[in-house]
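In this section we walk through a basic example: taking a raw amino acid sequence and producing a predicted 3D structure, encoded as discrete structure tokens. The instruction is simple. Fold the sequence below.
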Amino acid sequence: MKSRKRDKSPELFNLVKSLTGPEKRYFTVFAQRHVIGEENKYLKLFDAIDEQMEYNEEALLKRFSKEKFSRQLHVAKNYLYEMILKSMRVFHSKKTFQSEVRELLDYADFLCLKKQSKQFNKIITKAKKLALDNDLYAGYIEASEMQLRYMEGIANVNWLEENLEGVYFKQSGAIAEMANFQQYRKLAYETYILSEKVGFARSENDIKKFDKLLGNNVLLEKRETALSDRSRIIYYHLNGIYFLIKEKIKESLKSFTDLTSFIKSDPGRLRQYIRNYLFTTNNIISILIKHATFEKTLRYINSIREVPEEIIPDNEEHFIMHYNNILRVFTGFGRFNESTNWLLFIEQWIVELKGKNFQKNYIFRLYYNLAYMNFGIGKYKQALIWLNAIEGESNNNLSIDINCRSRILKILIQYELDGNEFSGSEVRSVSRYLKKVKRFHKTEQVLFVFLDKKISKISSQKERVELFRSFKKEVEHIFQDPEEKRAMEYFDFISWLGSKIERRSFAEIVRGKALKKSRLSVKVQ
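The resulting token sequence is shown next.
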């Protein structure tokens, strides 16, 4: 008995909504070429699904009630799903070296079947070179094995005798490089897992965990240990991360800029590792916000646009990262009021993301930065909307770092909105959460006592200012501890307290402090 294909409704909807504009246009052309008939039912179904904000089967059945294919809609959906995949395989061919190698292997496989020896060897040799030049070890080994099997199959003893030693020598080298890369990749994954669990390393205990993993690790001691481009990229990246955690700013910046220079030094490498390049620029921007000028940081962001547009990933995650950087620059330098055009643009852009698939913690960071930006310009209710969006969309799958930041900012926003009527119930709730996840540091402790037990009981404005002044001194003393000073990474508590004492806007205080802070003279390549 023939098994019935599973209905692909959710998968189809998500796939359609994930397509970019150019991908949708290409699919339309592809479908018109590959489906015979005056009316293309698959294009009709594609367009109808694309128009939906959420998948609605009943609406589709009603819309196509007069169409024959509505009687077997599940068959049409399954076929449409497969057609999209086929079209995207063609659309994305030769966009990456992986897809080029895969395409060459498919060609070689066909030529092998037809016993076209000369053309087979030409194609397979090209595939091997492309794979070897771009650290695509599995592709190289597959191509080599295909070539050996073919030559054995046609009994080409002369070729085997002449090339056997060289093939296995290169295979051994590829396997060694692959093993080396697997070591680096394992270390990179371990670092990622630790970062997600710990968040921003604030406590001495957190730093010790990174010390144990990365400190004195033989893989990070010298560049020559990394045998391939892929391994070397991880080498630079992990060194940059580790130095940043240890607050060795110059060393961290050097590792990150060495990485971007290494990737940019070869056009093919830039194309192959464009995501690594863009991710690293994000780390560099984080450092510049703290240690360079507003103008220099903004220039660096603009310089990223020099990368050829055709190799920039055409997906939402790239834009989320880019917009996050822009917001962080404006907030970091207190240029809140200058960012309103960007703020409106990004908020509108996010509305258009509904139904798209991407790494959720990326968008939650953007939500937090939008909340922070709105806080800075005094739009507290709008800031709350973005913080509530984090809570509403996370489905308990949220990094500790973002969760803690958003909960604390929410309390401060609530204070701004409620003033004398501020209640400490939310403070106590967040306190319990921070204790539970072991993120209740001294800064948060004194802040929450201040909001819950002290300031809420004072109604006189003069007394409030004096209480803020004494509390600011207490916090400044706490921030002499480097472990506590890291709390400023997610919110500028000192500037907020200063705004209450001086009765000036938070944005004005942050900007004034940014202009006074010492600069780290760095050369960004």
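Looking at the output, two observations stand out. Residues 474 and 480 are 10 Å apart (CA to CA). Confidence is low (pLDDT under 50) at residues 1-5. In the next section we compare this with other chains.
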